[in-house]
Amino acid sequence: MTIHIGIIGTGMIGEEHARRITLQLTGATITAVTDVDQEQARGVVERLGLAAEVYPDGASLIASEAVDAVMVTSWGPTHEEYVLAAIEAGKPVFCEKPLATTADGCRRIIEAEQAAGKRLVQVGFMRRYDSGYQLMKEAIDTDRLGAPLMVHAAHRNPEVPERYVTPMAIHDTLIHELDTFRWLLDDDYKNAQVVFPRKTRHAHSQVADPQIVMLETVKGVRIDVEVFVNCRYGYDIQCEVVGEEGVARLPEPQSLQFRQSAQRSNEILMDWKKRFADAFSVELQAFIDGAASGTLGGPSSWDGYAAAIAGDVCVRAQESGAIEPILMPERPAFYA
Ligand code: NAD
Ligand code: ISE
C-alpha cells in the first residue's frame, strides 16, 4: 500500500522531509504540496521532480482525495489550524514541533482527537528516534544507571536570525528538551526557573542569550539545560544523565578524527539537518507505516501538549526570575 502524502509548508524542513520520503523511505509518495509562497511550493516540486499537484492552500490540500495523510511543516503559529482540519477530515497528520504555539492550542487538538475517537497525530519530536538517546533510554529503563538523579544538557546553535526573540529559546529550541526528558525519564515536570548569564556580544538586541533553564521533575530529578543559540562554533547537543550507579553521556555524532599540523581534531556539525538525519528518517518511516496500518505511534498530541504546558511556564519563569510551578493535568486514558 502506498500512502499519498500532502505537505503544507515547503520551506526548509518541508523540503527536507519531501526529499527523504521520495528518495530514501518506502511506502509513501508526495501527491500534493502547498505553501503561502506558491513559488516556493512549485520550486520544491521541480527540484525534487515530484509528481505532485500544487494546491492554493492548506484547506483544499487536506480535503483532497489525492491525500491520505498530511504533513504540517509550515510556521509554528499555523500548525493548530491545519492539525485540527486534518483531524476533522479523519486523516493521519504529522506535525512538526511545536504542535501549537500555546498550551491552549494543544488542548484544543487533544480534545478534537479524542472526539474523533482515534489517534491521528504524530508530533515531530525526532530526538526520540535518535540512536544515542535511545541507548540512554535503554540504560535508564534497564536500571543500569540506578535511579536518575540529575541531567546536565546543552542545546547550542551557531546563530539565529533577527526575528528570533527571547521566548523562542523556549518555544522553538528548548521544546525539544522539554519533550525528550519527559520521555527519557518517564517523568513529568514540577517547576522551572530560568537564569541569564552574561550576554554574548554575538546576540542581537531582542534575544537574551545564553539562558540556563532549571527544571525539577515530579520524581525529584534536577535538570539544567544551557540554551545558547549564538555559540558560533557549531550545532551542539549535549546530554548527561547522572544516576545512583553511574553516568551516561550522549554519544558525539560520528566523525573522522584528524591528526594534522600538530593538532588532533574532529569536525563539529553546523546544523540540525545532519545531526539528526538518521532520526528524521526513522521518525518519518514510522509515520508512513503508522498511517498505512492505521496505528500511529511515537510522540502524541498529549506529548505536544505536555511540552507546551512546560514551555509556557518556562517563558513565565524567564520574565519573573522565580521558580514557577508546572501543573500538569491528568493524562486521559485515551493517551495511556
Ligand atoms: P521555513 O520558514 O524554512 O519554512 C516554513 C514554510 O511555511 C515557508 O515556506 C512559509 O512560506 C510556509 N508557510 C507559512 N505559513 C504558511 C501557511 N499558513 N500555509 C502554508 N505554508 C505556510 O521554516 P522551517 O525551518 O522549515 O520550519 C518549519 C517548522 O518546522 C517550524 O515549526 C519549525 O519549528 C519546525 N522545525 C523543526 C525542526 C526539527 O528539528 N524537528 C527543525 C527545523 C524546523
Ligand atoms: C530548530 O527549529 C529546530 O527544531 C532544531 O532542531 C533546533 O535545534 C533549533 O534550535 C531550532 O531552531
UniProtKB/TrEMBL annotation:
Top EC category: oxidoreductase
Function: Involved in the oxidation of myo-inositol (MI) to 2-keto-myo-inositol (2KMI or 2-inosose).
UniProt family annotation: Belongs to the Gfo/Idh/MocA family.
Short name of any one Pfam family annotated for the protein: GFO_IDH_MocA_C
EC number: 1.1.1.18
Signal peptide: none
SUPFAM superfamilies linked to this entry: Glyceraldehyde-3-phosphate dehydrogenase-like, C-terminal domain (SSF55347), NAD(P)-binding Rossmann-fold domains (SSF51735)
Boundaries of every Gfo/Idh/MocA-like oxidoreductase N-terminal domain copy: 3-125
Keyword Disulfide bond part of the UniProt annotation: no
Subunit structure: Homotetramer.
InterPro entries, sorted: Gfo-Idh-MocA_inositol_DH, Gfo/Idh/MocA-like_OxRdtase_C, Gfo/Idh/MocA-like_OxRdtase_N, MI/DCI_dehydrogenase, NAD(P)-bd_dom_sf
Species this protein is from: Halomonas dongshanensis
Protein name as catalogued: Inositol 2-dehydrogenase
Superkingdom per UniProt: Bacteria
Catalytic activity of the protein: myo-inositol + NAD(+) = scyllo-inosose + NADH + H(+)
Keyword check for Ubl conjugation: no
